[in-house]
Write a structure and sequence with these properties.
By secondary structure, the protein is mainly alpha-helical. It contains six helices and no strands.
Length: 126
């Protein structure tokens, strides 16, 4: 009887303990490839504006020695080597502020997808 009781108590404890584990593993969203041309002046710059990147990365502040304000952002990104056209996923402008990156402000997954598509299209200043 004691063995059955011990077994029941152990099983109850184990089931309660093991069912309380929760894992928050980020799931990468998958998007259809972007077919239309991405424009830096309207699509990419608007991401910097919408995500308030220019609050810290502007001509007056230049956090991280980077100015993402309109009219300066393209030359800043290209001159500082933030784009890797050979391996676009390794582009700092893509992965660092991406939704699973290290920057405290992040792109949404969709915005990251747009930036990656723009880089894959040749990162044109259009």
């Amino acid at each position: 009887m004691k063995t059955i009781l011990r077994y029941a108590v152990c099983m109850t404890f184990l089931s309660l303990f093991s069912s309380s584990c929760v894992y928050n593993v980020p799931v990468e969203e998958e998007f259809d490839p972007i077919e239309e041309e991405i424009y830096f002046s309207t699509d990419i710059q608007s991401i910097f504006n919408d995500q308030n990147c220019i609050t810290c990365h502007n001509a007056d502040n230049k956090s991280g020695d980077l100015d993402l304000s309109e009219g300066n952002s393209y030359s800043e990104i290209t001159s500082k080597g933030l784009i890797d056209e050979i391996d676009p996923e390794e582009s700092i402008i893509y992965y660092y502020p991406n939704y699973n990156g290290n920057h405290f402000e992040k792109y949404t997954a969709q915005q990251g997808n747009i930036i990656l598509a723009w880089i894959k299209q040749g990162a044109k200043n259009n």
